[in-house]
Amino acid sequence: MFNIGDKVVYPMHGAGIIEAIEEKEILGTKKRYYVMSIPVGDMKVMIPLDNVRQVGLREIIDGEEVEQVFSVLRDNHSKLSTNWNRRYRMNMEKIKSGDIFKVAEVVSSLMSREKDKGLSTGERKMLENARQILISELVLVRNCCEGEIDEIIQRFFQ
Length: 158
Known about the structure:
Helix content is about 50%, strand content about 20%. Helix 2 runs parallel beside helix 4, helix 3 packs parallel to helix 5 and helix 4 crosses helix 5. The longest helix is centred in the last third of the chain and has 22 residues. It is built from six helices and five strands. About 30% of the residues are buried. Strand 1 and strand 2 form a beta hairpin. It starts with 6 loop residues before the first strand and ends with a helix.
């Protein structure tokens, strides 16, 4: 169970802060919800408390793990399948996992591929989504702005 003020990650959406715990009646059923504010993208989401495990809501990483994320970005320019469909599915599974290190792998491999060969529209959109998820968590861990984290990530691929 999380509390108001906790910094958490909602896979496929990014990291944010729990602002409230509210009870709402939707379609005749009362449920309790976390109200989460995601600063990157300026979004609010409501997550039913009884779905927290299923959606993979988790605490953000700690400061020491940030260096591991940067290490993945710096060193993991893995070669992906040449089959677009297989590559897309593998990357989508990593993003859906909610694991920041797997999301960093997706960002790393797609940014490398973009630099070398370019990306399809679908992969470009996937890269932007993965970057937003990654940046949103790193912003909360480091307590800095989106632009600062984006600049750090960009440096790994120059």
